[in-house]
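User: Is it possible to get a 3D structure for a protein together with its bound compound? The compound here is fe (ii) ion. I've pasted both below.
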Amino acid sequence: MKKQTTRRKFIRIGSIGLGGLMLGCQKLELKNTQVGAAADATPQTDATLATDAGSDTNLGLDTNLDGNPGGDASLDTHAGADTNKTCVETADNIEGPYYAEGIPVRSDLDLYGDVGDALLLSGVVRDIQCNVIENAVVHIWHADPGAVYHNTTAELRYYGQVATDASGAFKFKTLMPGRYLNGSQYRPAHVHCKVFVKGQLKLTTQIYFEDDPYNDIDPFIVDTLIIKREGSGAATFDIVV
Ligand SMILES: [Fe+2]
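Assistant: Yes, that's possible. Here is the predicted structure of the complex:
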């Protein structure tokens, strides 16, 4: 692992210039960005929409989730009442150029009959004291199995947002994203993610998957954002903001 990390860092350093050129309008957003400004009113609206829809059973949220589906050692799942314990904040990652306004409130993104591998993405949102956060709004978006983003279409295929339940849990049913060319090299399969709490953007990141052949050469990947996808398609991404 250390060898890979070293190699990755080397590649990142060597790719900074190229990556910057390739990504064009991509930007790394800082945590705790206020979403209240008029020009950014839509994410606020999105967040409110999903929060309001938290009790809508059509969201598909499973309120029976135990709140601890993951194996993330950084999380202390027994620390809900112990403010002395801290959780490690989830790492930021680049937003990329395909975020869209008006992301539909839905947990099922596998709606189009596409052929692909199932991805059942679930997790729990907590604060740094490890308390679960109810009604946090989680946005995800990713390329379709053919590696195409649908950010300019009315359907916004493979875009969705849900609100966390009382256990801080969220889940999405979708298909594994295709790998797309970024400049001269492929990016590993990844899911983009934003998290809002009380209308405020808390996190912009990406989710990666173990054993992707392009993980080691990707200039943007962060090791702590790599999760394991089981054969069933289940994958856990717990979030701390
Ligand atoms: Fe992407």
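Confidence is low (pLDDT under 50) at residues 1-80. The pocket of fe (ii) ion is lined by residues 96, 190, 192 (CB under 6 Å).
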